[in-house]
Amino acid sequence: MAIYLLRERDFGSGGPQLGTLILPGALGMFIALGMVLVIQYLAADREDGTLLRAKATPDGIPGYLIGKIVTVSGSILAYLAIIVIPGLLLVDGLQLHGINSWLTIAWVLILGLVATQALGAIVGSLISSPRGVGYVSLPVIALIAISGIFYPISALPEWIQRTAEVFPMYWLGLGMRSALLPDSAAVIELTGSWRQLEAAVVLGVWADTGLLIAPVVLGRMARRESGSRVAGRRERAMRTVV
User: Fold this and answer.
1) Under DSSP, is residue 10 helix (H, G, I), strand (E, B) or coil?
2) pLDDT, tens digit, 9 for 90 and up, residues 43-102
3) How far apart are CA 189 and CA 193, in angstroms?
4) b/e string for 30-46 if b means 16 or more Cβ within 10 A?
5) 3-state secondary structure of 217
6) 3-class secondary-structure state, position 189
7) CA quadruple 192, 35, 26, 175: dihedral sign
8) Residue bearing the bigger pLDDT, 204 or 125
9) DSSP state, 131?
């Protein structure tokens, strides 16, 4: 709805339309929200004993992590398709042609999905129950809000810009904009360019670091799990429902 309402509003004098800027950023936002989905899955699987069963199988924790990344990525790709197809019809100024655009979308998707979901697994290992997911979701949403998803980050204070550049959310939006917008639109970015190399490096570092750390912290969390703890959580959940 926001994309449709802002589709004809320009950013700055003669700049691109806000609707045109928001759509690629929204795609980056949905990729980043995979972090929250992984946290929700992990909290639920810890409570119902799925994580405990994964611990009991050879290479169960790395397999569990890969399985969650594949599952959540499939859901996110479906969401993206639902947004992109009508978006291309409603919003002017987008370009999705040529091998370079498709290659950019591919590497942004792969690195972004892995980076955010591995980070979600690390954060989710700190949550003891599904009821704690909401507290973690708020900082994630705050980071998305300051990452130039709905309004160019160049219009925000410098300290917010520097903070946003540390996390993958900003680079996801930037990468998607570089794939879907003409080169002339890069003038509204922080350095007047798409910085694709920097985006690939930052997302790659987050992805590699997450894949190294996530199995370790998940394994430590799984070692603390036991049948009695799972049964106790189920009993407490049942008392809450009743």
Assistant:
1) strand
2) 888 877 777 788 778 788 899 999 999 999 999 999 898 888 877 777 777 777 689 999
3) 6
4) bbbbbbbbbbbbbbebb
5) helix
6) coil
7) positive
8) 204
9) G
Give residue 4's pLDDT.
46
The per-residue pLDDT for range 171-215, each reduced to its tens digit, is: 999 999 999 988 888 888 888 899 999 999 999 999 999 999 999
Retrieve residue 128's tokens: 């003891």
b (16+ CB within 10 A) / e for 141-178: eebbebbbbbbbbbebeeeebeebbebbbbbbbbbbbb
- In three-state secondary structure terms, 17 is strand
Distance CA(147)–CA(139), nearest Å, equals: 12
Q: Is the pTM of this model over 0.70?
A: yes
**What are the structure tokens assigned to 72, written together?**
């959540």
Do 46 and 221 touch, CB atoms closer than 8 A? yes
Which amino acid makes up residue 144? I
* Coil/strand/helix, residue 140: helix
Q: With 0-12 CB in 10 A as exposed, 13-18 as middle and 19+ as buried, what is 77? A: middle
Handedness of CA 140, 199, 96, 180 (dihedral sign): positive
Is the distance from CB of 35 to CB of 133 less than 8 angstroms?
no
Instruction: Count CB atoms within 10 A of the CB of residue 181.
Output: 22
Closest to 30 (Cα-Cα) out of 133, 109, 102, 100: 109
Contacts of 214 (CB under 8 A, 6+ apart): 65, 118, 119, 121, 122, 125
